[in-house]
Design a protein that fits this description.
The chain is mainly alpha-helical and 271 residues long. The protein is 85% helix and 0% strand.
Length: 271
């Protein structure tokens, strides 16, 4: 990366981390001082999850990168194929989270759905905004930045590490989990970033499938309070690892197929 691109990366990464810490403590001080109520504090917390998208737009705008702004807009353009795939990815996240939770609890499908409904009702503004903003910021902006110089795996991994550092710090200051739990949390975020990174690449960088998976997965994790449940992290990380292997295999197969098709077209033109 050249100096300008490195500066964008550091500005974005440090901006997300620092703004999260500042906003969280301001909201916490206001709440502890009885200046705002719990509901207001939760709604203001939405600003934290908006920062990945807002900083991406700010950096692209302040550097005059109009092309990047147009790309970000195109990544959020809906079409029938991607909407249907988004529904499928949401179902996959639902099934995966339920299977992971069933490994250490005796929860029924009905109770699981009820928990998800209650969680979504209480925090829909944060969960929905978070899924859209995080995918638009990390997948739509930061990973695209890395892909100019690294492979899909490398860019997904680097995006995942940045993503994990940000959310692990946020988990630490807000939940204060154990060190072991923080390690599994970081691994969790890296794996989901690799999976969604390859998925986004396979979807021609359309973000709707990744947003749908992220949203349902977030709702399930919030319903189970996963930061304090190492069992969920262990089983869900195994599920995400399997998904990573499957999506990487699919990507390689698609890449080989496209290469063979190009070679066939070249051969036909020569003949």
């Amino acid at each position: 990366m050249n100096k300008e691109e490195s500066r964008k990366f550091y500005s974005y990464s440090m901006g997300v981390v620092i703004s999260t810490i500042i906003i969280y403590f301001i909201i916490n001080i206001l709440y502890q001082s009885d200046i705002i109520e719990q509901t207001t504090a939760n709604m203001l917390g939405m600003v934290i999850y908006l920062m990945p998208l807002l900083l991406a737009l700010f950096i692209a705008g302040i550097t005059g990168d109009t092309l990047e702004l147009l790309r970000m807009k195109r990544r959020l353009k809906p079409n029938v194929k991607m909407v249907l795939l988004a529904v499928f990815m949401g179902g996959l996240a639902f099934a995966g989270s339920f299977l992971a939770i069933q490994k250490y609890t005796s929860i029924s499908l009905g109770s699981f759905v009820l928990n998800l409904g209650i969680t979504l009702k209480n925090g829909w503004y944060t969960l929905i905004v978070g899924a859209v903003s995080l995918e638009a910021g990390f997948r739509g902006f930061l990973q695209n930045h890395f892909e100019r110089h690294y492979s899909v795996f490398g860019s997904s991994m680097m995006t995942g590490i940045t993503y994990a550092i940000w959310l692990t710090i946020f988990s630490f200051i807000s939940e204060n989990p154990s060190l072991l739990c923080l390690i599994f949390v970081a691994l969790h975020f890296i794996l989901i970033s690799i999976f969604l990174g390859f998925l986004t690449k396979l979807c021609s960088k359309n973000l709707y499938p990744a947003i749908a998976f992220h949203l349902v997965w977030n709702v399930a994790a919030a319903a189970m309070n996963f930061q304090n449940r190492i069992e969920f992290l262990i089983y869900s990380d195994l599920f995400l690892l399997i998904l990573c292997v499957l999506v990487m295999t699919m990507y390689q197969m698609t890449k080989k197929h496209n290469y063979k098709r190009k070679e066939t077209i070249k051969t036909s033109y020569r003949n």
